[in-house]
Amino acid sequence: MTTTDMFAKWDPWWWYKDVPASIVAIHDDAEGFRVILNAEKCPPTRVSVAPGHLIMFRVYDEVSLSYLNPSGLQPGHSFYQAESSKLLKEAETMNVLHSVGRSSAHYAIYTGWRCIDMICTQEPRFILLSEFVVGGRKSERPERSS
Question: I want to staple 23 with a disulfide (CB 3.0 to 4.6 A). Which of 6, 12, 108, 114 is the partner?
């Protein structure tokens, strides 16, 4: 039985709700997996998955996304969580974490230039880059001010 890639909107931060984002940089090293995002009228933001919580990721250009033909994507929105995906099934089959009871989820950041799929055991965190640089974490998932 084949799994169809079906996505639902993931709204991790109100600043990026239905705002097309751009991926500025991707890092994967001893500090964990990090993506730097930017968007019009949005401050540069660090999206991170803590060390030990990223099972696998893939990066490709948006043209390749059309070949994957996922359902549930919406114009102008960049963030998704998979309700079902071939990549998640593949990761669960290949990875020992699944066999010891750690659940994982498929998160995606799809922009007009680059796409990133992340299989993680923990939801990625969003922090303003300016806050991160000075050691602050106040901006993590802030509430919208009225």
Answer: 114
Round the CA-based radius of gyration of the chain to a whole number and report it.
15
Give phi and psi for 3, each to the nearest 5: -100, 135
State whether residue 117 is helix, strand or coil.
strand
With CA atoms as reference, report the closest residue to 128 among 116, 114, 140: 140
pLDDT tens for the chain, residues 1 to 146:
456 789 999 988 878 887 888 999 999 988 889 999 988 888 888 899 888 888 889 999 887 777 777 888 888 889 999 988 999 888 888 876 555 567 889 999 998 889 999 999 899 998 887 765 556 555 555 555 54
Residue 107: which of 5, 10, 6, 4 has the closest Cα? 10
Q: What angle is formed at CA 32 by the lines to CA 29 and CA 37, rounded to 5 degrees?
A: 100
Query: Collapsing DSSP states into helix, strand and coil, what is residue 130?
Result: helix
Nearest in space to 72 (alpha carbons), one of 5, 3, 14, 123: 5
